[in-house]
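dumping these here so i dont lose them again. two proteins, back to back, each one seq then structure tokens. dont judge the mess
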Amino acid sequence: MDVFKTRFAGHAQHELAPALARDTDMIVVIGGDGTLREVAAGLIRAGAAIPVGFIPTGNANVVARDQGIPLQPDPAISLLTIGRVKSLDVGTLRTHPQAEDSVLFLAMVEIGFGARIVELTHRLRSGRLKTLYRRWGDPVYVLAALRALASPAETSFQLCQDGLLLPGRFKAAIMANTRCYAKGWAMAPHAHMDDGCLDLVARRRTGPGILLRTFHAAARRTRPPQAFTRYHQGQWFRLQSGTPFTVQMDGDPLPAANWLEISVLPGKLQLIAPQ
């Protein structure tokens, strides 16, 4: 068994995974969702359908929670021999109409309030709260959420789904490949990683009361209130606005954008999961 350690962002995607794809029967990822995404992207770019085992050691572990992979090391290691290989969907994201290559994601792309929380959390955990985040990540997210409530209003944008322009404008949206959002919450409770679709949860209105009801539904793993949200499945989405909006992908902040194109690649990730 060979052991490799990632040395920099993109190392697993651009170097390790493509090299291992040539003569490896299985790859085991020990890390968080970001490392798993890099390995999956590298294998997909190389055209390799190699089974991937996952021993989650991140903070959120969204994919592991979604697929029932144990969060403790010993049961996760045991799963490598008793689990089954599942063909899971992967999402693609382009941030500019002229962009030739797309970025791959596993869990979701989000625009709006939740993305602002992720952006603020990234700033806090990169600054004086770095030690606090390493020991207890949740208080940093709570502090970021409180600061997001006091930040400027969310940018409105147009939204197309499968070539159809949806009426009106929206304040927030999630294109979800997983039910799990963070720590077991579910913004898109009917999403499945093996159905060939992404679940759209788009919100037209904002405000503390609406946000409270939205996150309360997510904590209960129920659909958000239909009075101000649209919940549908689709395979292709485009968002655009004259003003840049905040974006997060799989829990990582991305540069603000005013154009996004999101689609799904069915069954591209071979992940070892419980029977």
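---- next one ----
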Amino acid sequence: MNEVFIFATLNGLVTGLLLFMLASGLTLIFSMMGVLNFAHASFYMLGAYIAYTVSGYIGFWGGLLIAPLLVGALGAGVERYGLRRVHSYGHVAELIFTFGLAFLIEELVQFFWGRDTKNYQTPELLDFALFTLFGQEFSAYRGFMIAISLGIFAALYVVLTRSRVGIIIQASISHPHTVANLGHNVPFIFMCVFGAGTALAGVAGVIAGPVLTTFPGMAVVLGSIVYIIVVIGGLGSLPGAFIASLLVGLLQSYAIAADAGMPELLEWLGVSFERSHPLNDLWTLKLPQIAPVLPYLLLILVLIFKPTGLMGNREE
């Protein structure tokens, strides 16, 4: 039992921190610009595909460096020549624009790379067991995923809360005219923030591609979960997104690892049904079967008891 719990925790941490890598860029964009980018998961997918192509020429580490830069540059261009033009029409126009952009990126990925799954492999440098516990190995690549996710969180937190750059960025949201009068180019700041957010999505794609497989539907698989995390954590809250990512990752990991079903849970709650009852089929369900639903249930509970999210302080 201890073995199952320990490895479920480790796998939950890996999943949660991977989700945070993806959610951090979306949180950064929303907290600074007030834009909920529906195409964010598509930039994540684009990062994986670009890294796969680049790694074929100069290896995984070259892809890790180049893919986020290219995705970030593309994101900056999208903000400069697309999103900025519809910004004056309000949030609905922005949502529609990014929603359409997500479909466009998916179609472009299928056009250039095809519909098949790509053989994107982990680097040989990290292709070994970091440690062995209870006869099971924990790969060095998963340890690398944990380390880079924690590094991103620490770097973002320091930049946004402890640096002059972070002060200028946050002031650009609340007092753009004052910041402009001080000599700063506010539109350029917004473009850089959007580019940085999409670059973070690209990093997540590079890291996740070898583990979760690189295929055209990978944006859809994690897309909805990322928005759930942002809402649970609190719109625009980086620490909230970090905590929510870990909660979702651990919750799903424990549910998958648990060898229990609804009979045990319903008996523990003191609930029972007759065989003829419409809800009697609940007795056949196992926790691993309902694991994908748990983040949505958590979202509902958070919205009921704390509508602004775990660490949110703004309702938008």
